[in-house]
Solute carrier family 43 member 3
Amino acid sequence: MQGQRLPLRVATLLTGLLECLGFAGVLFGWASLVFVFKTEHYFEELCEPNARLMGNATGLDDCKAQDERFSLIFTLASFMNNFMTFPTGYIFDRFKTTVARLIAIFLYTSATLTIAFISADSAVLLFLAMPMLTVGGILFLITNLQIGNLFGKHRSTIITMYNGAFDSSSSVFLIIKLLYEQGISLRASFIFISVCSAWHVGRTFLLMPRGHIPYPLPPNYSYGLCSGDGPGEEEKKTVESQKLELSEEFISPKKEIPTPGQQQEPRSFRSYAFSRRFAWHLVWLSVIQLWHYLFIGTLNSLLSNLASGDRVLVSTYTNAFAITQFFGVLCAPWNGLLMDRLKYKYQEEARKTGSSASAAALCSTVPSLVLTSLLCLGFALCASIPVLPLQYATFILQVINRSFLYGGNAAFLTLAFPSEHFGKLFGLVMALSAVVSLLQFPIFTLIKGPLQNDPFYVNVMLALVTLLTFVHPFLVYRECWQKESTPGVA
């Protein structure tokens, strides 16, 4: 039976990877799309007359109001990308996979059709289209992350691989830019993306469960093509019966006796949402994410300044940035592989020594958290140095760090908290970090205005704030050490 289901599971894995790679995180190729929008004269009416008359040589460098409008659209879209993850995570938990994916398809198709048929005169509709595009994309990612449950011990590797594919999908806008330069219109490209929604619909009903993929996976689990009626009573009973098993795995795998008052609280969503572990994870994610959003949202303006408005140089570096984004899907699985290997190693040691298995699983996340913080610090330092050729190194560090960030975030939540709360906790941490990401627009305005395009002081402050991210892995490590040294503590 297992062998008969393997081709279906592999097909689900590969098509899910393709879906995340081609559609889920296209927003983060924003710099490539802005280049096309500027060529199409979007928001050019905001420019001063002399900026428009100076032609292509310096026009990119002189229109502050146009840059601010594009930065505001990206700020809003990236905010919605994170903030709406909480309600969409709730929808996924409450109404299950099919409903969540149909909502995603509706939002995504509406957005791509809107972008296809707007022009410079109606460019304000980008404020509606881009958030819809990102919310649809994040729903694609959330519904695909559960596919990791089909592959047991490789779960973290697959989750991080999907997050890497989410990052790599930003290269889609590079393809649109290159096609545009070859004479294929923006409208034609987005109409093609809209037509691909038929493929999403087919995959929803043929290769995805109607409910949720449980973890651990029951022996006779079937879905999609192998299941005619979706999540019947057998699957519901399986999910319910395994909630206690999962809770015990995360809370007291050895069935240790908890301290008074702890028996019910760890099983509630509220107790996890207000825990110190979750709070510091939120700080870790928010600070690193702010760096990435600020960098991506202001990249076109940054390159224009460093290249003195040379459109050819700006185009070359924009292409280089977008190409490096594609390699996120290759970088992210290494983080998951590291976590999976360490989890297996630590849990084997825990079984031999009789220590807590939940502590062992938690310990496996510490190297990933530290490495992600180090990569962010290196990326931040390179981005702060105003040397144009150095930005190639910045692009490389940025894509590695970003692929580690989101894959590590999802994997940490699966290892540090019970899976029945994953959708809600994943949505909550993304929603709260979205509030912090709103700082990118006032920071951009500060750099463009009072600081006169000199981001040095802002970069120094943000680099110092980045040091806060090292507190999270330190506290997780200390918590692991305390659990190992006192087995009676759940």
